């Protein structure tokens, strides 16, 4: 392996199920070393993880990177959004973190939205109408169900904040991740004191919001990682904002990410405020905005259907008139937190492969339904849809997105875009560049383009019809009639 041309930086992706670390040459974007270690997530009604697992996984991932990690001049953490991390006075977790896909706060969502002016007021205030993913609703759930945990809490953090603080010893976050809490006001770009007072959260418990391009701190003495004391630590950000940096996105370019969750987003110069709640009005990590729509059920749900059928995930068959709404974990887009999966149109001659294709169709339908709302009116409708995430290299996913979107689809060759975006942020500290410009210099979107095909309007209309007709079933709460 040839020597690096420039300084080395480390980018981290602490996701729902694992932590990945990349050591990257800041001059060329070449990945010099990488490592990965898993986390565990609870099953059942809640979705929780012990934050200390994330630190242990980070240590292991960097150990796998070997000597190049020791030479890094800067590091940045990208992490799963929304998770509620509660720490005691010693900095230890009070309880496991409530993750983004924990939907137990649905009653608190309804109450908070109603008590603070309704959906339109929330969208104007914070950029988003909070759903069960948003941290403010998780804090409200905790206060109602585990008041002793709230009393023991001396600091409230997001997942990426927790790891950054363990590196630097300072409580910091960034505007991108803060914008997914529900207590950060997008209009003023600061914490919203009225929201915090309403949910009984002292702003002194929250981290300082570090500006784009600002150094969050330096690596302190007491740590288990290979970094030298004084190594620069970037602000870090949430996973979607990090991936946007990793792609070097310019305003108006659409992205569809296929992971445990599915997301569609684009960078915008305009502050979003969708009163329907379909589009979350997130900030990005370098001063613009990142309107985004997210589904809870994406690759994991489709893989579960494949497993139930005993099929390989690529074993799809065409020609189906069956509809499968794969809402196995409830759903965020559309907002159906109590929903379960629904199958309609099953016939004697329906094959397993057709059922599997229906699961793909149902998952992609939810994402594409929000795409037009995410994009600004001046976005180029002919621009290729960038397909990223764990499912992006699957042929069945590619062809389903292509057929149901009617757009050209580009699949970047670069892997681990969240970690690459974090690495670009770290590199920007050293070079003074916009991290998105760093990623463009690294040519991270290079990859094949699949030409557009005629959009499958018949399938889209069929799924929309079933979704509409089934609304009473999908909206019914557990135990309801």
UniProtKB/TrEMBL annotation:
Pfam families: FGGY_C (PF02782), FGGY_N (PF00370). It comes from the Bacteria. CDD domains: ASKHA_NBD_FGGY_BaXK-like. Substrate binds at residues 81-82. GO terms for molecular function: D-xylulokinase activity. Its EC number is 2.7.1.17. Residues 257-427 form the Carbohydrate kinase FGGY C-terminal domain. The active site is at 239 (proton acceptor). Keywords: ATP-binding, Carbohydrate metabolism, Kinase, Nucleotide-binding, Transferase, Xylose metabolism. It catalyses: D-xylulose + ATP = D-xylulose 5-phosphate + ADP + H(+). Residues 9-246 form the Carbohydrate kinase FGGY N-terminal domain. The record marks 13 as: Important for activity. Catalyzes the phosphorylation of D-xylulose to D-xylulose 5-phosphate. Belongs to the FGGY kinase family. This is Xylulose kinase.
